[in-house]
């Protein structure tokens, strides 16, 4: 398993992380014995980053991950979790952050987590579930720093969802060590300019900002919530199709566009769309580790096999770029 230096943290993380999210559902609603076997398999294969959140199954993902890690007791794995401050708690952000972390540590059976990510959207002025840039830098960051000083977290992280300009302001402030950034074959805008009138949120080459600030990148939504399988079928334990996720406003539109990328498979660049999508996410050096949602142990094996083939070659990236040009001008 390839390891990459994760920003300025000094950590060396496996390029494939273990996503414990609710969309795939494996660590929320999966069989406990299969969870244990799959995590043991991942560790044996060199996976050393595990990513969860209290929002994944209202703490079930954290409890299941904690149970398995307590049993396996692996050395040198990094665990990340998240806090989403409810709007009703925006007047007491520090207390809400602290309470959330204490609950997460208890469910995980840990004294500290390696990365603690803010999970709220970030916009210039806030509103709804979103925090403003001022709230993030003025309230969230000091709360995180206090928890770091207490030894309960190692590094400060954020999930880079919200308005692109606001996200760039926060990253450029260099307060965070990690950023989870949307990056997939339907929306590569964190690394390159989008074609004109392209139907996706433009993340404005955020990788330029993360690289300049020394911020480690966790690539998220690598399979666009499952759309980059090219199928609308969902496993019984998977969560509902997420929409929007930074590309189309509907999941069905994402699936339709994903199917239009099938020439990558027919022309021999990858054995499947999911393989192509997984390998695409590794193709930029700014990406430290990627998370691939899963519902079954086999889906983990598929992700592992794809990663072991390495990033897509330049010819595949060129072909992908040409195929995406056809999406310009379509409604999001």
Automatic annotation (TrEMBL):
<feature type="domain" description="NADP-dependent oxidoreductase">
    <location>
        <begin position="16"/>
        <end position="323"/>
    </location>
</feature>
<dbReference type="InterPro" id="IPR023210">
    <property type="entry name" value="NADP_OxRdtase_dom"/>
</dbReference>
<dbReference type="Pfam" id="PF00248">
    <property type="entry name" value="Aldo_ket_red"/>
</dbReference>
<dbReference type="InterPro" id="IPR036812">
    <property type="entry name" value="NAD(P)_OxRdtase_dom_sf"/>
</dbReference>
<protein>
    <submittedName>
        <fullName>L-galactose dehydrogenase/L-glyceraldehyde 3-phosphate reductase</fullName>
    </submittedName>
</protein>
<dbReference type="InterPro" id="IPR053135">
    <property type="entry name" value="AKR2_Oxidoreductase"/>
</dbReference>
């Amino acid at each position: 398993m390839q390891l990459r230096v994760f920003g300025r943290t000094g950590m060396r993380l496996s390029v494939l992380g273990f996503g414990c999210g609710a969309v795939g559902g494996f660590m929320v609603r999966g069989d406990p014995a299969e969870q244990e076997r799959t995590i043991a398999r991942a560790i044996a294969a060199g996976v050393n980053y595990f990513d969860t959140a209290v929002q994944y199954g209202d703490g079930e993902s954290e409890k299941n991950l904690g149970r398995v890690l307590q049993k396996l007791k692996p050395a040198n794995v990094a665990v990340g979790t998240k806090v989403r401050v409810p709007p009703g708690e925006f007047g007491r952000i520090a207390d809400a952050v602290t309470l959330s972390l204490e609950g997460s540590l208890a469910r995980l059976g840990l004294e500290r987590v390696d990365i603690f990510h803010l999970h709220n959207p970030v916009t210039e002025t806030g509103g709804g579930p979103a925090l403003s840039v001022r709230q993030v830098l003025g309230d969230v960051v000091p709360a995180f720093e206090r928890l770091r000083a207490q030894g309960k977290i190692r590094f400060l992280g954020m999930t880079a969802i919200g308005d692109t300009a606001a996200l760039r302001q926060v990253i450029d402030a260099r307060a965070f060590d990690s950023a989870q950034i949307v990056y997939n074959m339907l929306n590569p805008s964190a690394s390159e300019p989008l074609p004109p009138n392209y139907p996706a949120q433009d993340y404005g080459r955020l990788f330029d900002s993360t690289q300049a600030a020394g911020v480690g990148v966790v690539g998220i939504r690598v399979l666009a919530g499952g759309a980059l399988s090219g199928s609308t079928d969902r496993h019984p334990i998977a969560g509902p199709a997420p929409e929007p996720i930074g590309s189309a406003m509907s999941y069905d539109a994402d699936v339709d566009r994903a199917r239009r990328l099938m020439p990558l498979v027919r022309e021999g660049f990858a054995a499947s769309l999911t393989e192509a999508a997984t390998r695409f996410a590794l193709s930029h050096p700014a990406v430290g580790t990627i998370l691939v949602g899963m519902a079954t142990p086999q889906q983990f094996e598929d992700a592992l096999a794809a990663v072991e083939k390495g990033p897509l070659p330049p010819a595949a990236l060129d072909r992908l770029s040409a195929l995406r040009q056809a999406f310009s001008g379509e409604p999001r």
